[in-house]
Amino acid sequence: MSASGGTKAIVAALAANLAIAAAKFVAFLFSGSSSMLAEAVHSLADSGNQGLLLLGGKRAQREATPQHPFGYGRERYIYAFLVSIVLFSVGGMFAIYEGYEKIKHPHPIEAWYWPVGVLVFAIIAESFSFRTAIKESNELRGDLSWKEFVRRAKAPELPVVLLEDFGALVGLVLALGGVGLALGTGNGVWDGIGTVCIGVLLVLIAIVLAAETKSLLLGEAAGIEDVKKIEAAIVDGDTVTRLIHMRTLHLGPEELLVAAKIAVAHDDTATEVARAIDAAEERIRAAVPIARVIYLEPDIYSEKRAAGTATPADTEA
Q1: I need a surface site. Which of 42, 55, 191, 250 has the fewest CB within 10 A?
Q2: Cα separation of 55 and 7, whole Å?
Q3: Distance CA 55, CA 270 (A)
């Protein structure tokens, strides 16, 4: 993910959520709708989440230090994981609690035009934010489905904004349905039911985000396409005759570590091997520019050793 594309989507979502949160709080004060309160807290939590994503992106740009020699790229994953926690607790659990209280102690909605008008405004604003996130994501996802894009994306910002905006739009529809049923029936319980549904939705989205960012925090390998490009770039058929094995690891969304054992000819000099490694590193970086940390270990390839049938004499040879 390009930093500019992710930042554009985050800023668009932040601006929309701040405006929507203010409008929802005003509507809650005039109407007393618990759905409006839950939605206001949800928008406020989303605003804080976008702030966390921006902060994570800024801190991830720090230079490597002796204590952190591979840099701070993974800070973006940490802040994305914090987003899932905020969404679960401040957004989801608060909405479920507020809805439960409204179901136990229902009261009619006053000044109905406030919540209805604000919800319509919020749906329009969130639609523009969602559209921006979709546009930015389409530039990166290629032929991947939306589900595959969310699961495979190494940069967490766009998947987070996409799921947040999607959840916000569905939540607004649920809130509008709850308010509408409460007004139509004169029973405030429907407002509470709509609020509980919003909370359950937010909890589910938070769980998905937590699972995906946890995988990134643990460390994910390069994507399938990048792995194929690196494998093709390593072997030149002359000085590097074979790739024995390779491991890749994302140090951050735009920084990849590559460690591989490569086969060289048994009669190559140390100078020739060093030149072969340097040339292989250049080919790897040309094929996959985010491969910034590369460790290549030269070895003499043995078919018996690779098959696990080598004898001690073969190993010594």
Answers
A1: 55
A2: 11
A3: 47
What number of CA atoms fall less than 13 Å from residue 235's CA on the CB side?
Answer: 14
Output the CA torsion sign for 173, 175, 178, 181: negative
Residues 6+ apart with CB under 8 A from 123: 169, 172, 173, 176
The pLDDT value given to residue 147:
87
Residue 81 in contact with residue 160, Cβ under 8 Å?
no
Residue 171 has a pLDDT of 87
DSSP 2: -
Residue 35's nearest CA partner among 125, 98, 127 is 98
Distances (CA, A) of 21 to 51, 102, 119, 121: 15, 20, 11, 11
Is residue 260 within 8 Å of 283, Cβ to Cβ? no
State how far the alpha carbon of 57 is from the alpha carbons of 72, 79, 107, 169, in Å: 10, 9, 44, 26
Q: Where are the alpha helices (DSSP H) in the chain?
A: 3-31, 34-59, 75-86, 94-104, 113-141, 146-152, 157-185, 189-218, 224-234, 270-287, 303-307, 312-316
Q: Which two tokens stand for residue 149?
A: 């894009």
Q: What is the mean pLDDT of residues 50-69?
A: 90
What average pLDDT does the segment 85-112 reach?
84
State the Cα–Cα distance between residues 289 and 297, nearest whole angstrom: 20
Q: What rounded mean pLDDT belongs to the chain?
A: 86
Strand partners, 264: 240
Residue appearing with tokens 């969602």: 130
